[in-house]
Amino acid sequence: MSQSKVNPASDAAVAAQTVPSLQPFSAHMMDRQFVIDRVLWSAFAVMLIGLMVYASIHSEEADEDHVAMIVLLLGFIGLWLAYDIPRVRVMRDWPRILELTELAHPEAEPRLASALSRRPLRASMRVQLYHRLAVLRHRQRRLGEAAAVCQALLRRRLGAAGAIKPHLLLMLTEAQVLTKDYWGAWQSLSALSAFNLPPRETLQRLAWQTRYEVETGAFAAAATGRPDKADWLRRRAELLCTSEQLRALTPDGPSPQPA
User: Is 226 left (phi over 0), alpha (psi -120 to 50) or beta?
Assistant: First the structure.
């Protein structure tokens, strides 16, 4: 991804605005936002049907036919603008949100908070915003919250945003391995095996699968007094990983780069 230079003046202007702060993630609050969106879109459909009924009733009177059509047209335009403005504002800010979350820039938080507070949004757009929240927390190494966002999204039907599922699973796997949630990591790796991943993501999955196998295998070998098993796992890691990746697999080694 090409990264344009961060504009401090623009970001300071965003910070100066009155925007909601980005609160710690809550799956309950996320679900509540999706429910509110659905209710508002349902209300939009009801009002639109009401306008159409009004127009059909008054169109029976020849003298008022043009009045009914004008009311219908103006009402539809007004409703559509009122409901589409939040989407337009989020789309206008979307390139900046993408850049700032990838960089874990401090101004990513107010921009995300502002976008998430808008309603109604299409479900796929809100899913994408929460995906960017997961990316931001992942880049910040706030792994517990990143995992919570990924898990909450993976429990939902992603719909038009379904292409992000492998990336959610990769971030979740990394968080689970690093926090030693080995049961969760096994489930995430199993889910990833169902996807035909591009080469880069395939290598990332392989790296985390190897680390998972080495850590869980070494733990089991140590617990059962099987140094031969631990040695076998080390040789397996040497076949699958570069020297840099092997150093990352050791307890004192550096952590791999985020997925």
Answer: beta
Task: State whether 117 and 216 are in the same domain.
Answer: no
| Cβ atoms 82, 109 nearer than 8 A | no
Q: Within 10 A of 157 (CB to CB), how many other CB atoms are there?
A: 8
Residues 30 and 123 in one domain: yes
pLDDT digit string (tens) for 218-230? Answer: 666 666 667 776 6
On whether both 80 and 204 belong to a single domain, the answer is no
pTM of model > 0.85: no
Same domain, 124 and 220: no
Predicted confidence (pLDDT) per residue in 50-104, tens digit: 767 766 666 655 455 566 667 667 777 777 777 888 989 999 999 999 999 999 9
Give 94-151 as a DSSP string. HHHHHHHHHHT-TTHHHHHHHHHH--S--HHHHHHHHHHHHHHHHHTT-HHHHHHHHH
Residue 3 forms part of a structural domain: no
For residue 241, what are the domain limits?
A: 181-259
Question: By the 8 A CB rule, do 119 and 40 touch?
Answer: yes
pLDDT digits 0-9 by tens, 25-51: 999 999 999 999 999 888 877 877 776
Structure token digits, residue 230: 């631990």
Count of structural domains within the chain: 2
- Residue 185 is assigned to a structural domain of this protein: yes
How many angstroms separate the Cα of 241 from the Cα of each of 106, 210, 244?
A: 34, 8, 8
**Are 114 and 19 a contacting pair, CB within 8 Å?**
yes
